[in-house]
Each structure stands twice: as C-alpha cells, then as structure tokens.
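Sample intake sheet
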Amino acid sequence: MSAPTRQTVVLFSGLPYTGKTAIIHRLQDVLPGEAIHVDVHFRDIVAEDEVCLKRWLEENPRLVDRIIEHMRSVPADRYYVEIGIMRKKHRRHLIEWSRSVGYDVLPVLLECHSREAIAARQEARMQALALSPEKQKIAIDLDELYGPIASAFEKIEASEGYHVVDTSKPIDVCVNRIVELIGANGASGETDRGTTEIQAG
C-alpha cells in the first residue's frame, strides 16, 4: 500500500519580471494546486495611493500571516506561493512554519539572466495592464527594478535550501525542471534543505 501523498509548498522568490506568475500558471496546468500571490494580499490591505516598495517591505510580517491563513483555510495538495523579494527573516519564518505543520517545502529562486528578456516582459506587462488592469500586477520601471528593488532583495543563503532556475530559458523547460523537483522532494519523504543550481538548458 502506497504512503499518502504529503502536501507540498513551493515558494517562489525572485525579482519582478523573472516569470513567477507565468510559471505558477503553467504549473497549475500540469500539477493542480492553489496559487497564492503575495501582491494580491498586499493590495488587499494597502490603499492604492500607498502602494510602494517601502510599504511592501513594512507589511512583510502581515503578509506572511495572510499567506499562512490562506493555506490553513484552503485545502490543497500543493500550494504555489509567490513571495517575490520578501525579507529573509520573513521568508524563513514561512518556510519554518510550513515544515513545522508537516508540509514538504520546495523553495525556488527564479532568476532571469537576460536583460533583453526582462525588458520584453516589462513592455508586455505595460501593454497588458493598459488594456486590462490586474490587481496582482503593476508595471515597474526598469530603473526602479535594477535600483531600489534589487537592492532591497536580501541575498538567498544556502541554509534556506533554495533551488535556482534561470528563467531566461524557455518556460516549458523551467516548468519541467520544477515538476521534477516537486516529484523528487515528495518521494524523499523529507523537505529539501540543500541549494541546487538548476541549469534549464
């Protein structure tokens, strides 16, 4: 008799335009799960005229609480949790809480090593939002991205157990590798605690 499937939390960290939302949507087609977008919760608790990087960082503790409550209230085999540039101590708290209640945890850092791809995604987002505003997304200027936002993103440490995916590679390749990681993580019966560089080519 096979062991029951353990619930899995896949945490996605990374700068804007690294493909977090697109990869989560594609993963849901392959391995259904509950998507949790930190920016949706942020926009729920902050007035539109107060949306800024400083306020986003200040609200990190509250955002973690909302993510935890979301997982508690919506049963799912998998949770795809987009946490962006969440501060180190708060993402660690989320990882530790998830493990403490018995979830398999797979932290993934998405990085795009192509500035051309980043610029194309930013332009596409601006055009899409001009046609249809979306609560979870805003168009971030590239100067802001490579300036204050990149500076605010605290470095991922090996002890956090992240796997790194270069999203300048085709999205299907990235998704397939994440699916492999989810399978390996669950099959081991233990949450993965070692950082692995994922080459998506």
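Comment: Residues 188-201 have pLDDT under 50 and may be disordered. DSSP finds eight helices and six strands in the chain.
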